[in-house]
């Protein structure tokens, strides 16, 4: 593993050494981490980026399932635990659902638009793509929901950074790709989006579009500083979505979608109150079945709502759908009964933007 120190960004009158923010060296990762650095500097704190190169960055050919889905996040966490960096910025959906007591998510900033985005030839939207059109995606969640729409599309496994994916459409190798809109927004490429896919068509991955700003659990001073970057509504939404994922005992490669939003409502006395609306789905990878459910409740019950919705999906038969997908951990016994599922993995754009 290689660590590259970036040029310091220190505020005038700073009373401490710059907080070291660990990041991968991709355009998207640098952009995401850069927003945290800039926010800290704007608040009067010294901060700098530290680029960490991982084995995954040097391996652009092997499937992520081979090199390990968590290779990028675990590399940042290793450096955080070792004290080489003070802060790690993750694409939240890449983090394992199991808590690591060594670390704390000190801030979840305001979330980018979590929807998936279609980038298609000739400016086409999804419903205009002819049957047989080749649509690229890395995610079993996207593949399953695209197939379930019954449009007769040819869903093609895809890996590579965002520029590589977009180029496959521009050069005619693919008719379209589906990627996270948030990644394109952060690198200033929303101009290529031909359609933002509404959740009724395709529910995003749990925590898609959100960042996790992590520090060591014993660094209480830094935790207090980072807490100023936290957005309460985003945190409630992410807690609910991740609780659903954890209750289903599924990882980020499973065909599961979830989206929570804090919305205003009226209580029985006519007063405006905040409510958390959560939608979830579990799909068969071949698109033959998609189970959907939803729940509404108070934002402070976010985790409880997520678990309750997961249990409802399980009662509808989600377990049977999910056991048709190959396990997330390489080398574990396979339960796959649907071979195409093994062609797809679901790393975030952050993992793929080299």
Low-confidence stretches: 7-14, 59-68, 326-354
Overall geometric form: globular
Main beta sheet: strand number and arrangement?
Answer: 6 strands, mixed
Tally of DSSP helical segments: 11
Give helix % range. Answer: 25-40%
Spatial arrangement of strands, main beta sheet = 1-3-2-4-11-5
Number of strands: 14
Molecular structure report:
This protein is of the alpha/beta class and 354 residues long. It is built from eleven helices and 14 strands. The chain has helices at 27-42, 64-67, 71-82, 140-148, 162-170, 181-186, 220-226, 232-247, 302-316, 318-322, 349-352, and strands spanning 2-5, 19-23, 47-53, 87-91, 103-107, 116-120, 134-137, 154-157, 176-180, 195-197, 211-216, 256-266, 272-283, 290-297. The strands form three sheets. The chain has a six-stranded mixed β-sheet with strand order 1-3-2-4-11-5, with helices on both faces. Strands 8-7-9-6-10 form a five-stranded mixed β-sheet, sandwiched between helices. A three-stranded antiparallel β-sheet has the order 12-13-14. Helix 8 (232-247) packs parallel to helix 9 (302-316).
Task: Considering the chains and any ligands shown, give keywords for the structure.
alpha/beta, six-stranded mixed sheet, five-stranded mixed sheet, globular, 354 residues
Describe the structure concisely.
This protein has 354 residues and is an alpha/beta fold. The chain contains eleven helices and 14 strands. The strands form three sheets. The protein has a six-stranded mixed β-sheet with strand order 1-3-2-4-11-5, with helices on both faces. The protein has a five-stranded mixed β-sheet with strand order 8-7-9-6-10, sandwiched between helices.
């Amino acid at each position: 593993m290689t660590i590259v120190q970036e040029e310091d960004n220190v505020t005038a009158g700073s009373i401490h050494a710059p907080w070291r923010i660990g990041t991968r060296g991709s355009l998207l990762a640098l952009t995401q981490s850069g927003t945290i650095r800039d926010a800290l500097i704007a608040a009067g704190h010294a901060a700098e980026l530290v680029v960490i190169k991982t084995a995954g960055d040097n391996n652009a050919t092997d499937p992520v399932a081979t090199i390990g889905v968590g290779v990028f996040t675990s590399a940042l966490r290793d450096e955080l635990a070792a004290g080489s960096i003070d802060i790690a910025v993750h694409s939240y959906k890449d983090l394992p659902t199991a808590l690591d007591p060594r670390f704390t998510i000190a801030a979840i900033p305001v979330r980018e638009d979590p929807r998936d985005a279609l980038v298609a030839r000739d400016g086409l939207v999804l419903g205009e793509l002819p049957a047989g059109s080749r649509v690229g995606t890395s995610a079993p969640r996207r593949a399953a929901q695209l197939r379930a729409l019954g449009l007769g599309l040819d869903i093609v496994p895809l890996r590579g950074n965002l520029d590589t994916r977009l180029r496959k459409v521009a050069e005619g190798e693919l008719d379209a790709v589906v990627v996270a809109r948030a990644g394109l927004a952060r690198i200033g490429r929303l101009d290529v989006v031909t359609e933002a896919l509404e959740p009724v068509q395709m529910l995003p991955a749990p925590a898609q579009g959100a960042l996790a700003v992590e520090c060591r659990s014993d660094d209480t001073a830094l935790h207090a500083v980072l807490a100023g970057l936290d957005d309460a509504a985003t945190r409630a939404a992410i807690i609910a979505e991740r609780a659903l994922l954890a209750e289903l005992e599924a990882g980020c490669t499973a065909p599961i979608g979830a989206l929570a939003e804090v919305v205003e409502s009226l209580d029985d006395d006519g007063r405006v109150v905040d409510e958390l609306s959560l939608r979830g789905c579990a799909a068969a990878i071949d698109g033959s079945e998609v189970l959907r459910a939803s729940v509404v409740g108070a934002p402070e019950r976010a985790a409880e709502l997520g678990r309750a919705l997961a249990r409802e999906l399980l009662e509808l038969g989600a377990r049977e759908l999910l056991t048709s997908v190959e396990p997330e951990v390489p080398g574990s016994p396979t339960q796959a009964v649907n071979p195409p599922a093994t062609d797809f993995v679901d790393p975030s754009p952050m993992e793929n933007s080299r």
